[in-house]
Amino acid sequence: MIPLSQPNLSSRERTLVHEAIDGGWISGTGANIAAFEAALCRVTGRQHALAVANGTLALELALKTILRYEYDTAVVPALTFAAPAAAALNTGFDLCFVDVDPLTWTIDPLALDEVIRRKPTEVIIGVDLIGHPFDVDAVRAVAEHAYLIEDAAEAHGACYRGRSVGSLGDLSIFSFHANKAISTGEGGALLTDRADIANEARVTANHGMTSARPYWHEMRGTNYRMTNLTAAIGIGQAERWDELTTGRQQAAEGYDERLDDLFASGKLGRRPVASWATESCWLYTVHSAHREHYLNALRAADIDARAIWPILPDVPAFRHCVVKGRGYPVARRIAREAFWLPTWAGMPDSTLDYICEVIHAAASKL
Ligand SMILES: *Cc1c(COP(=O)(O)O)cnc(C)c1O
Fold it and tell me: pTM here?
């Protein structure tokens, strides 16, 4: 079976993990954590980074920190992996969905404007969907006073008008799950330029304690810490940031070349990229009204290609959050037609050849 994605770990990560084991620092305390956080600040240009156990908890931490300033409604795009929507509900926010833009597949500023007018909204979670940043400036223009959280879980290495993802929101988060471009197995990070928010998040993530007075809980906290072992992998991955992100982008370019004729004939569509965006491919994404036909052919050839997520307003966990009268037509069309092809850094040409041959054979039967 050709997998959908594969982590890419080198002898460097192995060495760093062995060093952490030999040194005995295996919990959420240890030098690797600060070093990994510093590396994340370097690659994104941010002032503060906080490494946590996973990307979903990074979102919850961001939302919890903001909640203390008495916000209560969060807006999430209708098309995304569910973590931002779940995180909003888990932290006690009201949840509102907004449609996506057909040219970026990310949160649609015009639809957002309409939603905000009807229901004043204080927190917006913009998702850099499948390696493509959302239109931050346009979102800011319609939601000047809202708190902007950037979910960059799927977009390590992408840029918005020359600015790195991870630096676009008041708070931004990464995931380092095994299928993400930069991976520590499980892992996540919260990034911000605001020292007060960073400090508060750090205290919350560490049982509400500060080093100034151990066991004196100034506030109720919890444990969101990343382990020093995980951070060892993170340091190795951060050192290889460009190699790993361009590696995926090279796989995408390999697909572009091989599928160009199908895009030209309209038998297949490629995920669009806005002129202001620098894409950093997470999973190569195409679309077709004949998605099932293509997926059946790929599965029969032992290739793990997959349909994209259903829209969140349709799934049982979030149905009750839907504002009546909204159909999310753009998100719905993409959710019906888009699918992912196997993508990882260092994908062999022969694998790309094989997958694209199967796709061509399927296309010729349409
Ligand atoms: C993967 C992902 C997350 C959550 O990351 P975990 O580390 O798996 O918790 C959040 N948001 C988006 C858009 C994701 O794709």
Answer: 0.97
